[in-house]
Amino acid sequence: MAHRELDLSERRKIDDMIRAKVPVDEIAAAMGRHRSTIYREIGRNRFVDPELPYLTGYWSIVAQNKATARRARRRKLVRLPALLDAVVDRLKAGWSPEQIAGRLRSEGQAVTVCHETIYAHVYSREGRAAELARHLPARRRQRRSRFARRPQGLVFPPERAIQNRPDWVKERSVFGDWEGDLMIFRREHGLANVASLVERKTRYAVLFRNNNRSTKHLMDRLMTAMAALPQAARRSITFDRGIEFSGWRRLQQEIGTEAWFCDPQAPWQKGTVENFNKRARRYLPRETVVAEVPDRAVVAICAQLNNTPRKCLGWQTPTEAFRAEIMRLR
């Protein structure tokens, strides 16, 4: 169940029941809240005045104002655009929130921010809209409690790390090992993107458009693109650790293709597809409105790149090299 803050109407009920001397356990049960939530609410937001002790107590309006002020402090990055710009620039440069916060303090800046505030903003509504989580060294779909986080290894387990990938994949000595990535475009043009797959030995590529970045949609499209190939032509795919690839287990279960994952923030470990993406960007720059690009245009771009001679293939084209490998499998 999603976390839900207490609102003014609930605080009024707490106020009334405290006045009626109802025990905290009964207040919690009546409101459908955990007893710890009620204890914490009373402790945080009760009014205390040493000079007027008879006014000390829990008052709903005072509690609401204190809670609102506390949330405003947590939203420092929304209130201070200049500070937000400095934080976002450094996130995009690959800095972690802890590095950003530490550097601001060491520079003696008049206004600083702690790393937890940066994380909270990254996973806030504004941060999700700006896709700030993509710039974190270890990004997650959402921010969870520090004491109850699901280990990242459960999504991308250590045994799937690129260091455990067979040597023949690294050496490109065997046909059928691929690298996969997403080409992302300007946020204001929507969630549409283009997925790229490149076979490591022949450099043969496949491009297809996605209308969103959900892992289910991506894996459905990817398996459709790969399923027509012989099993030996789709042994494995190497991805980065983007959340869009978190459905990787379906590849093994449904089409028998293994998945391997780069280290966090190490896209160079799948350099074949990164190199291909640079070539494709000549035709699909970041400013492209992908939703308006027909599928046949994406196929035509891919075909043009696959029919361009490559020095690493002895001036064969990727298409020629790929066809030769497929013929050997028959």
UniProtKB/TrEMBL annotation:
<dbReference type="GO" id="GO:0006310">
    <property type="term" value="P:DNA recombination"/>
</dbReference>
<protein>
    <submittedName>
        <fullName>IS30 family transposase</fullName>
    </submittedName>
</protein>
<dbReference type="InterPro" id="IPR025246">
    <property type="entry name" value="IS30-like_HTH"/>
</dbReference>
<dbReference type="InterPro" id="IPR053392">
    <property type="entry name" value="Transposase_IS30-like"/>
</dbReference>
<dbReference type="InterPro" id="IPR051917">
    <property type="entry name" value="Transposase-Integrase"/>
</dbReference>
<dbReference type="GO" id="GO:0032196">
    <property type="term" value="P:transposition"/>
</dbReference>
<dbReference type="GO" id="GO:0005829">
    <property type="term" value="C:cytosol"/>
</dbReference>
<feature type="domain" description="Integrase catalytic">
    <location>
        <begin position="162"/>
        <end position="326"/>
    </location>
</feature>
<dbReference type="InterPro" id="IPR012337">
    <property type="entry name" value="RNaseH-like_sf"/>
</dbReference>
<dbReference type="Pfam" id="PF13936">
    <property type="entry name" value="HTH_38"/>
</dbReference>
<dbReference type="InterPro" id="IPR036397">
    <property type="entry name" value="RNaseH_sf"/>
</dbReference>
<dbReference type="GO" id="GO:0003676">
    <property type="term" value="F:nucleic acid binding"/>
</dbReference>
<dbReference type="InterPro" id="IPR001584">
    <property type="entry name" value="Integrase_cat-core"/>
</dbReference>
<dbReference type="Pfam" id="PF00665">
    <property type="entry name" value="rve"/>
</dbReference>
<keyword id="KW-0233">DNA recombination</keyword>
<dbReference type="GO" id="GO:0004803">
    <property type="term" value="F:transposase activity"/>
</dbReference>
<dbReference type="GO" id="GO:0015074">
    <property type="term" value="P:DNA integration"/>
</dbReference>
